[in-house]
Amino acid sequence: MSTVLLLAITGLGLGALYFLVASGLSLIYGLMGVLNFAHGAFLMFGGYAGYEVSRLIGATTWPGFAVGALAGVLTGAAIAALTELLLVRRLYERHIEQVLVTVGLALALGALASGVWGTDAIIITGPDWMSEVTVILGARVPNNRFLAIIAAVAVLAGIVLFLKFTRYGLIIRAGVENRSMVTALGIDVRKSFTLVFAVGGAAAGLGGVLASQYYTIVSPHLGPSLLIFAFIVTVIGGLGSLTGAAIASVLVAMLQQFVNYYVFGLGEFAVVLALALVLLIRPRGLMGRVAA
């Protein structure tokens, strides 16, 4: 019983990390139709920014961690906004060029990170509470899993509230439906689309900080490895569906955790098999909309 509970809670923690990355992918694709392969780089630089800032203030203190997390969020948002302004804005409705440019940007930013911090993983520390465990019905659950779960729930709620109840959220949704009409009303939709990228990048930056605490390392490979699972989650959940991404994040992480434990480390194979089955049986994903 304790083993099953431990796998379930740690699976939720891993799913929370997947969602923090997949939420930005799903948001950007759902509202703007852009497949952003540089999204993992936003996460990676968010993790490095969090590491550097928290190290300066005090990596093992809560103020150091909090300011480092804020730095990671702002770094992810800034890089994402610049990506939209300088590169993606010229490529809307040109999907092949979007893929080529964002893949190239991901490679360039990965090389930049390797040049600045080296190719080896950097071991990081956090507040003592994160390295401790909480015993629940006999299961010794690492505390950093709870932090990831809380952050993912807060991000999901924040994005939904932003889109539904703010002026910019209304403009973004209207611009997606009829961009020319919104522009004719004198509203600059381009600023709103830049904001969408920034929000997605901020979620990825926070994911980078929490992933570095989850794995206790930060490295140039952190973003690409999580991005693979984030794309799987996005496809299974349904491209453009934030709710689908949340559900798929939990399902994928749970499947990975349980299969890794009970079937000799074949969790990744099980996830890829699940992706193949979803594409064969329900190509639009769990919550994806039927193409008009």
TrEMBL record:
Family to which the UniProt record says this protein belongs: Belongs to the binding-protein-dependent transport system permease family. LivHM subfamily.
Protein name according to UniProt: Branched-chain amino acid ABC transporter permease
PANTHER family: ABC TRANSPORTER ATP-BINDING PROTEIN, BRANCHED-CHAIN AMINO ACID TRANSPORT SYSTEM PERMEASE PROTEIN LIVH
Transmembrane segments: 64-87, 99-126, 146-163, 193-215, 227-254, 261-281
Pfam families according to UniProt: BPD_transp_2 (PF02653)
InterPro entries: ABC_transp_permease (IPR001851), BCAA_transport_permease (IPR052157)
Source superkingdom: Bacteria
Subcellular location: Cell membrane
Membrane topology: Multi-pass membrane protein
Alphabetical UniProt keywords: Amino-acid transport, Cell membrane, Membrane, Transmembrane, Transmembrane helix, Transport
UniProt keyword Transmembrane helix, yes or no: yes
The keyword Cell membrane appears for this protein: yes
Species, as recorded: Occultella glacieicola
Main localisation: membrane
